[in-house]
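User: Last request for today: this protein with TAP, please.
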Amino acid sequence: MEAPKTQQPIALDPPREYLNYINGKWKPSRSGQWFENRNPADQDDLIGLFPLSTEEDVQEAVEAAREAFARWRRVPAPQRGAIVQRAGDILRARKEEIAREMTREMGKILLETRGDVQEGIDTAYYAASEGRRLFGHTVPSELPDKFNMTIRMPVGVAGVITPWNFPLAIPTWKIFPALVCGNTVVFKPAQLTPKTATTLVEILEEAGLPPGVLNLVHGSGSGVGAAIVRHPGVALVSFTGSTEVGIQISRMAADSLKRVSLELGGKNAVIIMPDADLELALEGVIWGAFGTTGQRCTATSRLILHESIHDLFLERLLERTLRLRLGNGLDPETEVGPLVSEAQRQTVDRYVRIGLEEGARLLCGGAPATEGALSKGWFYQPTIFTEVQPHMRIAQEEIFGPVLSVIRVRSLEEAIEVLNGTRYGLSSSIYTRNLQDAFYAIREIEAGITYVNAPTIGAEAHMPFGGVKQTGNGHREGGWEVFDFYTETKTVYIDYSGRLQRAQIDTERLSGEA
Ligand code: TAP
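Assistant: Here's the final one, the structure of the complex with TAP:
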C-alpha cells in the first residue's frame, strides 16, 4: 500500500550541526572539525554541518559495536526483524519529508527520491520477514542414527561504506540484512549525503535498536572509510562505490582476511533491434540515460542501435532529449536535476572534451547549463554523442553523468560483442519482439542484470543485485543472496547412535554390507 501523500508543502529543515551516533549517543567528532553539506541545485542553501571524524572516532564506534555484538547476536532473529519492520513503518510514514530532504541534499527529482525511500521501505519489510526464515539445510547423514544440518551464524561487526547516489536505499540494502542476521554495524555514508544517512539512523534508534548495534561515523573516505576497513575488530566490509576505491578496499581488507562485498561501477548498454517497439524503447532510453542525471551505477551510458533503425531512432531521441526540463528537483515540472557536485560536473565536462578529441559527433548538449536559476547549481545539458566507436574512452569508462554514447551495429552478434567489450558488467537491456533474439541475448550478455524490453534501471528489493567482471567481486545485494554474505554457515552433526561412528571409514563398511 502507498504511504499517504502529503498535500501541504513540507518546510525544509534549517541548517544546524549534525552529530555522529556512537553507542546510542549523539556526539561530535573528537577532532572538533566539521564539513559543510550544500544543495547541489542551489549553492546558497546550506543544509548543515557534519563532523569530520577521525580514526579515534572509528575506534570508539568499533568498540561499541563489538560489545553490542555479544548481546545482539543472541536476540532471536524474528525480534531483530521486528525492529527493522518498525523502521520500515517509520520510513513509510515519513516518506514525503525524507524524499524532499534527499532531493535537496543530492539533487535528483522528487519522483526518484520517493522511489529511493520506497526501496528502503521494501527492503525493510523483506529483510524483516527473513528474520522468520534464515534457513539452513537439513541433510541426510551417510551414517545411521545421525542428524546433519547447517545453521546460520552472524559474522560480527560489519563496516558499511556507501555512495551518495542512493543515499537511503543503498544503506538499507546493507544495514537491514546485516542487523537481521545478528551483526552490528559501523556506518560511514558519503560526505555528499550525510543528512539522509543521519535520518536513517535516527529512524532505527526510534524503532528500538539497542545502543551500540548501529554506529554512524561521518567523515572522509580516506580517513574514516579506510580506518573502518583496516580495523581488526571489523569482520566484514560492504562497500558500494567506484571500482578504483573498491580495489583499494579489497587490498586493505586482505591483510586481515576480511570478507568484502564490492558493488562498483558500470558502463551499461541498451541494444535496440529493428523489430523493437521504438516508442517503448525511446522512453526507456531517456529514463535510463538521463534519470538521476545519469548518476546511477545502472545508468544507460551506451546505446547500441541496429543500423536499420539508427537514423530514425536518433531523430526521435534528439527531439525528446531537447525537450527535457532541467531544474531544481523539488519543482514537480523538473525532469533532470543537477549533478551532485562541482567535481562531478568537471568530470562530465572533461569526458565531453575527450569524446570530441576522439572524433565522436556531438548531437546535443556538451556544456554546463547555466541559464537563470540553473547558474546556482551544478547543472549539465543532457548530452548525446553519435558515431562513437566501441574502443573510445567515452564508450569504455564510467562517466556518471547525463552523457549517452551511441554505437551503430549491423547484427545482434555484433551488438552483443560491443556490449560485452568493457571491463564492467552490471546492467544491460535489449529491446526486441523476437523471442529467440531475447533468449540468445540473455545467455550471451556478460552482466549481472539483463532487462528485456525495459531500461537498464529498475531493480526490485527482493531480487539479487550486482555485476560481473570489474563491477564487483561476486557478491550480490538485495534478494535472498545478501543473507549469505552477512552470515557464516555452521555445519552441525548430531550422532544419537551412542557409539563411535567414523564417517567415510564406517560408511564404506556399511555400503560393503549392503
Ligand atoms: P567513491 O568515490 O568510490 O565513494 C564511495 C564511498 O567510499 C564514499 O563514502 C567515499 O567517501 C568512500 N571512500 C572513498 N575513498 C575511500 C577509501 N580509500 N577507503 C574507504 N572508503 C572510501 O564513489 P562515489 O563517487 O561516492 O559514487 C560513485 C561510484 O559509485 C560510481 O563509480 C558508481 O558506479 C558507483 N556505484 C555503484 C553502485 C553499484 S550497486 N554497483 C551503486 C551506486 C554507485 P567520501 O565521503 O569521501 O566520498
